Amino acid sequence: MVSLSPQNLPSADLTPAQLEQGTSLWRDAWHRLRRNKLALFGGIVVIGFTFTCVFAPWIFHLSYQDQNLDLGATPPSAKHWLGTDTLGRDLLARTLYGARISLMVGLVASLVALAIGVSYGAVAGYVGGKLDSVMMRIVDIMYALPFTIFVILLMVFLKDPMQAVDAWLGRFSLFGFHVFEGMQGVGKILLLFAAIGAVEWLTMARIVRGQILSIKKMEYIEAARSLGLSNRRIIFRHMVPNVLGPVIVYTSLTIPAVILLESFLSFLGLGVDAPMSSLGTLIKDGSEKMEEFWWLLVFPGGAFSLTLFSLNFLGDGLRDALDVRASKD
């Protein structure tokens, strides 16, 4: 039992703010995330790997398409840290450039899915009634569509527009600098963004709809209606910010799923075109020659596995950190 001696009583000089400092969900979530070692490890690996992929080729002047046919496939050495492929191209450079493509597809397609899914689910949950039923039946129908066939059809029917996009990007310059110089198949990458993002938003829409249904009858929403605020303002200024916790968690878990999906498409030959590569195309090439040249599969596969594990660790940590029930313990 604590005695109420003068030493234990709060000082009269302290202000009310100093006597009782409030906290927030985000601050509590950050404290819980810092205690999760696996999540911190995943976040550090993802950030470090991303910076390496973006800046290392530029710093060390690595090229993913320089060929040395006399060199051929050589094992790791002091000159080529990860060895070379059958065309004499540096595997480290190709892995870093390939990881750029995979990470970019994962991030951009996830952002596309985020924008579509949050808007669609929020409107469906807020309006409700027959419109909600129709919108969610559309989601159910799209769930039933075979994704691989959908992407193949997009590749066939949009081949000519994507070639026109490639030609325009090849001529595009900013302050006299050709931004996309040497990046063949950018149009196909944009098509991958659209194709993957057009399907991955479905689950996001369901999650957001469920969250909106649970909060749209709360007092602050009724107060916003009584003040005459528009439905658009209520949805995107008052409701969507209050469901960001589950949205952030699902987005962090969507990125590795999208990277895995892009690698699967590249493994089937539906990804980027040569000489560009993604981690999926590198793994495909390595699997065909793994008995002779083991490093062609081990290093791209290791980079791919480490990235997926790290993103999943980070996503699981965010899920635990943003759990409202845990914040009440």
Q: Which helices and strands occur, and which strands form pairs?
A:
Blueprint: H1 16-19, H2 25-35, H3 37-59, H4 91-127, H5 129-143, H6 147-157, H7 159-171, H8 186-215, H9 219-226, H10 231-239, H11 244-267, H12 279-288, H13 295-321, H14 324-327
Helix pairs in contact: 2-13, 3-4, 3-13, 4-5, 4-8, 4-11, 4-12, 5-8, 6-8, 7-8, 8-11, 9-10, 11-12, 11-13, 12-13
Question: Gist?
Answer:
The protein has 329 residues and is mostly helical. It is 69% helix and 0% strand. It has a domain at 46-60 and 80-117 and 144-201 and 255-327.
Give an overview in words.
- With 329 residues, this protein is mainly alpha-helical.
- The chain has a domain at 46-60 and 80-117 and 144-201 and 255-327.
- It is 69% helix and 0% strand.
- The protein has helices spanning 16-19, 25-35, 37-59, 91-127, 129-143, 147-157, 159-171, 186-215, 219-226, 231-239, 244-267, 279-288, 295-321, 324-327.
- It is globular, with a radius of gyration of 25 Å.
- 32% of the residues are buried.
- The model is unreliable at 1-12 (pLDDT under 50).
Helix content: 55-70%
What Rg, in angstroms, do the CA atoms define?
Answer: 25 Å
Query: Residue ranges: pLDDT <50 for 5 or more in a row?
Result: 1-12
Hey, roughly how much beta strand do the residues contain? under 5%
User: What gap, in angstroms, lies between the N and C termini?
Assistant: 23 Å
Quick check: average pLDDT?
78
Q: Report on the biggest sheet.
A: none
Question: Class by helix and strand content?
Answer: mainly alpha
User: Total number of helical segments?
Assistant: 14
SSE succession: HHHHHHHHHHHHHH
Instruction: Compute the number of strand runs.
Output: 0
Looking at the structure, what is the overall shape? globular
